[in-house]
Amino acid sequence: MGETQELAEYVETITYDDIPSEATEHAKTAIRDYIGVALYGSHHEVGDTIYNYIDTQYGDGDATVFHRDAKSAPAAALANGAFGHAIDYDDTFESIVIHPTSPVFAAALAAAEEVNASTTKLLTGYVAGCEVAYRVGHSTYPEHYQNGWHSTGTAGSFGAAGAAASIQDLDAEEVSTAFGIVASLSSALKKNFGTMTKPLHAGHAAEMGVRAVLLAQNGFTADSEIFEGDIGYNRVMTIDDSYDPEEITEDLFEEWGVLDIGFKPYPSGVITHAAMDAMRNLTREHDLEPVNVESVVVTLEEAASEMLHHKQPNDALQAKFSIEFCLASILREGRAGIHEFTDEYVQQPETQETIQKVSRAFESNLFGDEFAGYGAVVRVTKTDGTELREEIRYAPGSPNNPIEEQRLDRKFYECAESRLSESDAEALDTAIQNLEDTELDKFVSYIE
After folding, report:
1. Which domains does the chain have, with CATH numbers?
2. What pTM, to 2 d.p., does this model score?
3. Taking the CA of residue 128 as centre, how many other CA atoms within 13 Å lie in the half-sphere pointing to its CB?
4. Where is the MmgE/PrpD N-terminal domain (predicted)?
5. Are 294 and 167 in contact (CB under 8 A)?
């Protein structure tokens, strides 16, 4: 049996009872985190633009669009996926550069509402979709990503299709077809980091996953062995024949990709977060502020250089991929959240002046042992000549460096209460924590 068929059979056969409780609990934490940032993103500039587009170009329907009017399932998947990634605050896998929940859960929810699935089925489909994205992503990583592809939009499309297919009970043959269809629909380029098109990648992946499943259900054809062969998807998407088919199939039902998900403490590229927490620690421990700091030098893994496009950002989208802004905002405020990542804050003279104090350096295998992760070293020189140093090897919020639950709680409520009342945000939180025992209609009533 080839890897396409084996992964398709996994999607067909997985049930809620197959998933260990640790994985389901972590999945619900990820869903809560995503819903909070997607609610905020629903009326962000990106969210407004995406919704205006689907409102005029797509038909009406019954699929929930966060804090907006309902639309067709593909339109809702597009919007909700983009909303989740609008401010780059959504989760990531630790071991691979993919934001899984924005494309996967957006597709899962749209698919679930189409067939009035149970919330248990919704949760199972989400876990299955994360597994598909994780495995397709790993089978081509890191060459695919290093060659300029944004894996959230490529591997994430397969995850979205897997989630929708699981929820809508496609058989393995139909799932294989859906994978074949979505392979030709998936695309996303890192060149667009720092623009509105980056969050579009997540929305596009969600929409294409739903589209592929709907087409496969209706008899549309595609190659049913899309991963195999010299011109199979994964070999085409790597430039040095580094595709590893075992990454697709090894230890299915034994290892769970959803457990690799980490949660962002800052609304910026995850590559900035270890440095930001290091700066946060130094600022708090030594009462640092711009007036008593001469310079800041941050050293990052060499691979980060291609993601950090903006040394002197002009707006909030660029600031998400500016290590200089990220550390400058921590130095100014002691924090960096949704209130700092705004055009107004980025353009303030005080912010631009503080940015000038920060410089970047890159080093291959920063922490040895060929560890190409999200770690950073921050060195601060004070105006009195004192030198300070802090290093963090793993991104805060990742499984290897988890952040306190209180930080995740604050993040959820800060984002959710930008659109909901305090009581509704609390009710939504409770519904997610007890997702399997909450009716689908009741669950979506908090976010529609």
Report:
1. 3-262 (1.10.4100.10), 270-392 (3.30.1330.120)
2. 0.93
3. 31
4. 5-244
5. no
